[in-house]
Sequence to fold (108 residues):
Amino acid sequence: MEGVKPRVKVPKTASAGDVVTIKTLISHPMESGQRKDSDGNLIPRQIINRFTCEFAGEMVIDVDIDPSVATNPYFEFEAKVGQTGDFKFTWTDDDGSVYEDTQSITVA
Fold:
């Protein structure tokens, strides 16, 4: 889908054992499939139906998303970090499209 863009904010550094706040936003229309266009035709459903975040191969968050979620879904959550590593973010669309982003954090 054109125009879908994930944005992620992860702190660049943390101390071992810190709990960090992660913010994500993905530009997506989240069309529920229940609205009609100007000609009265149903607009096909197209939503991000799953969001996951992994850190160093371990699942941090796994969310199933319903059609009632608003345009441009935003998630804010916390994760405890014990080592330097990568956060991998994945959004899955109804049409099978997958949008990914990876952000690194250095733990000192």
